[in-house]
Design a protein that fits this description.
This protein has 347 residues and is an alpha/beta fold. Helices cover 21% and strands 18% of the residues.
Length: 347
């Protein structure tokens, strides 16, 4: 008679305070357990004898989360690395790989949800008229320093980046450092860029402007359109996606093996990213513009890299209990929005 039940190596049990989630990181599936079910599976994972007639274990076996066994066994969990062969005398911290530049604060739109836009979309800061915006010469000095820190991709946003008079020269400058480029636009105005294969994120507030957008960007092929409403008539080479805003509504989805372990060790949405506004002020994310880390024209970037790692990239949500939530690995809640009095946790 089969007396034991164990989860498969690819299935991780993540217990919470009142519930648990089992993640199948190989097949990108997940199942949620209530408190009683959680305690039952925890006991089985400790190689305790189980009730083979228990409906819970029957369902887990049917859905290929585990199996019944005749004897106690040790299960070596699936990982993207072999922990037993690691011989490190030091630990390399992650580097700045993505720089998000808000190259202009100028924008003619007055979106009610401007501060809640999906990352890394456009953002309009309060009045900065007394501060001098970054010039092309500033970017010429900044980019090689960021390149030394491991920079691989530059994301340009605004404001409305079409209003940045040196956009074409800035794009050429970025390409001269062999960096990838992503441009975030609202589509209402054409952009002066010769490379029509450049990656573009096009955020639209409603479907009515699609004809104008098509006219302004019809020559570009690598375009992803984000819109809340249903839309059609976009060029066949474009991609489309529904946009969501950073609200306190939690959404949960299963994760892959790489996504699981990134979330296990880091805050995935912040990892490797540096946000810089139009006057050079550095932030960990557009979601928390009250936390200024300095100005990129006069800071030590290696020190900023370490500060981002220590305060924001490395398990930052533990401050407010997110790490205790069994849905943490599959949750895309905006952690920095939880810093205010509106913070909430699904546990």
């Amino acid at each position: 008679m089969k007396k034991y039940f164990r989860l498969y190596p690819e299935c991780y049990l993540i217990p919470g305070i009142r519930s648990a989630v089992i993640y199948n990181i190989l097949n990108r599936n997940a199942v949620e357990l209530n408190g009683k079910e959680m305690e039952t599976v925890i006991a089985s994972e400790k190689n305790n004898i189980v009730d083979s007639e228990d409906e819970l274990f029957g369902k887990l076996a049917d859905f290929e989360y585990g199996c019944f066994l005749d004897s106690q066994v040790y299960i070596d969990k699936l990982r993207p690395y072999d922990a037993y062969n690691l011989e490190l005398f030091w630990k390399n911290i992650p580097n700045i790989q993505f720089a998000i530049f808000q190259i202009t604060n100028d924008c003619s739109l007055t979106c009610e949800d401007c501060e809640m836009s999906v990352c890394p979309s456009c953002l309009k800061f309060p009045d900065y008229s007394a501060s001098k915006p970054l010039q092309l010469s500033d970017y010429s000095n900044i980019l090689p320093k960021l390149r030394e820190q491991g920079l691989k991709k530059v994301i340009l946003t605004g404001g409305d980046i079409s209003k940045f008079s040196q956009l074409s020269k800035l794009v050429n400058l970025i390409k001269s450092f062999e960096l990838d480029i992503l441009m975030c636009v609202n589509g209402l105005h054409p952009i002066n860029v010769k490379d029509k294969n450049i990656e573009i994120y096009l955020s639209m507030k409603n479907g009515q402007s699609i004809d104008q957008v098509n006219a302004n960007f019809k020559e570009f092929s690598n375009v992803t359109v984000f819109c809340r409403d249903n839309f059609s008539n976009i060029p066949s080479t474009w991609r489309s996606a529904k946009t969501i805003t950073k609200t306190l509504t939690h959404s949960f989805s299963p994760v892959s093996i790489d996504e699981f372990f990134v979330k296990e060790h880091y805050v995935a949405c912040l990892l490797g990213k540096l946000y810089v506004n139009h006057v050079g002020d550095i932030y960990p994310c557009w979601g928390n513009t009250k936390k200024k880390l300095g100005n990129i024209l006069n800071v030590n970037l290696a020190k900023i890299n370490f500060e981002l790692y220590e305060q924001f990239w490395r398990k930052f949500p533990a401050l407010y209990g997110c790490r205790k939530c069994p849905k943490y690995h599959g949750c895309n809640h905006c952690y920095l929005k939880m810093l205010g009095p509106e913070r909430a946790c699904c546990e």
